[in-house]
Design brief:
single chain, alpha+beta, two-stranded antiparallel sheet, 26% helix
């Protein structure tokens, strides 16, 4: 407890930032193009294909604002009928899109005699009125969940206007694909992450220490550095079954 001590300042925060970078790259990555592509390729970088890019290029895009009426969702359903007819789907959305769906479903209540009712009230003094919906069925099952990434003002929540992303419809379940490594058909989730690995090297998540301080003995540098490395890519299978909702 006396004398000089070595310590790693903010190593934990650095690791958390690296994890955030990994997740963000799976969502936002795009291939390098044009002059940038030539420069990047010369350095060994060619970019990647994140979920938003793939669905925008090979999937379905709803633009011009959120679908706010059943007729709008009927158009989405009609499109899905032509693509793969996956019965269960999850919509990851921002706050406003969630409110729009809640308002749309609540509007189906006529509030009058003979009308449909989506709530029963026991006049409990401690009752909290639930004005939200977790999903609905109209030809397909649609479940919705708030996506913090789309609400965070430092991420997608800080982007507004034409082209901003309000939600992503992802089919649930799995699909059958031909796995070249296994040499046979295999079941895979529609959305999953794959990592580069071999018999001697696994790059899913590597971390190592270099320097000459804090227990490291790898160089003559009077310091200790923590290194992080991961080589991964997101696989978007059946992108024609996804829907990207944009303003």
């Amino acid at each position: 407890g006396t004398g000089y001590l070595w310590y790693m300042k903010s190593e934990h925060e650095t690791r958390m930032r690296f994890d955030d970078y990994l997740e963000t790259s799976m969502i936002e990555a795009v291939p390098a193009k044009g002059a940038v592509a030539l420069s990047a390729a010369a350095q060994g970088f060619v970019g990647s294909e994140g979920v938003f890019y793939v669905v925008g290029e090979r999937g379905n895009v709803w633009s011009g604002g959120n679908p706010v009426a059943l007729a709008d969702f009927d158009s989405v359903i009609s499109r899905l009928d032509k693509q793969g007819a996956i019965e269960e789907n999850v919509i990851f959305l921002n706050r406003q899109f969630g409110f729009d769906i809640d308002d749309m479903l609540a509007a189906q209540n006529s509030y009058g005699a003979g009308g449909t009712s989506y709530g029963l009230f026991d006049n409990d003094e401690e009752m909290a009125l639930n004005l939200g919906f977790s999903g609905f069925r109209r030809g397909y099952d649609f479940y919705k969940t708030d996506w913090k990434y789309l609400n965070d003002p430092t991420m997608r929540g800080g982007i507004s206007g034409t082209g901003s992303i309000n939600g992503l419809l992802v089919p649930a379940g799995s699909t059958s694909v031909y796995d070249q490594i296994l040499g046979k058909n295999a079941k895979r989730p529609f959305l999953h992450v794959r990592y580069r690995a071999s018999e001697t090297e696994d790059r899913r998540y590597k971390t190592w220490i270099t320097g000459s301080a804090g227990g490291a003995r790898t160089s003559d540098i009077d310091a200790m550095e923590v290194n992080f490395l991961s080589e991964r890519a997101v696989c978007t299978l059946g992108a024609n079954n996804f829907v990207l909702f944009e303003d």
